[in-house]
Specification:
Shape: elongated
Largest sheet: 2 strands, antiparallel
Mean pLDDT: 90
Radius of gyration: 27 Å
Structural class: mainly alpha
Number of strands: 4
């Protein structure tokens, strides 16, 4: 960009050589970011002292800009891979699932909840929330991908991909939970905050959120392709709970 006018119209394969020459010629008055220094067979890079000072004083800004452009580059070339940011820069500490646990504990007060993997009835004091699609793949804690399960099942599953047969069970328990919350606990503001991730990620509208056929189809249309992508990314597939 320091020599935009000079290289305009030049064939791409000649631009690097031209820029190299211009950086040498105008290093002190045009102040390009760097130039190559040739010393016999060896070569080094000299950063302009003005840019060294700028980068030193604004390092966090420059780093943030560079990382954003890098992530945009990777996401554009890997459109089928979700949450590239979370994969490349995972948080030092995962968020607590406070609101998600509160939602399910409200459901436990009204509904008998079974583990989708073991089919055993769960105890409100002895369950864990499982990321159906592993967190290390999706990179989020959205409630549509969380389901209460036996602690033993969650520990056995780890980062494995559940067998596709479990998707129907996931949709079934999610439908029962949403319907229960709608009938017993919802006020307009709270219910919308609960269902917003379902609406945005599963391509549903508010009228369809408690309709089992719509919800089940949306889960299948969303999760089956993601299971395939995760499998191709190296996640162990077709996990079935052994007890």
């Amino acid at each position: 960009p320091f020599f935009k006018n000079e290289v305009s119209g030049i064939a791409d394969y000649k631009k690097n050589e031209k820029i190299n020459f211009l950086a040498q010629e105008y290093f002190n008055n045009r102040k390009p970011l760097y130039r190559f220094i040739y010393d016999g067979p060896s070569c080094s890079i000299e950063l302009h002292e003005s840019w060294v000072k700028y980068i030193y004083e604004n390092y966090s800004i420059v780093k943030g800009w560079a990382e954003r452009r890098w992530l945009e580059f990777l996401q554009k070339r890997n459109p089928a891979t979700p949450a590239i940011v979370a994969k490349l820069k995972p948080p030092i500490q995962r968020d607590a699932l406070t609101s998600q646990n509160k939602f399910w504990k409200d459901i436990f007060k009204v509904l008998s909840v079974r583990c989708i993997y073991s089919n055993k009835i769960l105890d409100i004091h002895n369950y864990e929330l499982d990321h159906f699609l592993p967190w290390s793949f999706v990179g989020h804690d959205k409630i549509w991908n969380l389901v209460p399960v036996l602690p033993q099942a969650n520990q056995e599953k780890e980062q494995r991909l559940p067998h596709p047969d479990y998707v129907s069970s996931l949709a079934d328990i999610q439908h029962k939970a949403l319907e229960t919350y709608y009938n017993h606990f919802q006020n307009k503001k709270n219910f919308y905050s609960i269902i917003e991730p379902y609406l945005s990620d599963l391509s549903l509208n508010e009228d369809q959120i408690t309709d089992y056929s719509y919800l089940k189809d949306s889960y299948r249309n969303t999760i089956y392709p993601l299971l395939s992508i995760a499998k191709n990314s190296g996640f162990p597939k077709d996990w079935v709970y052994q007890g």
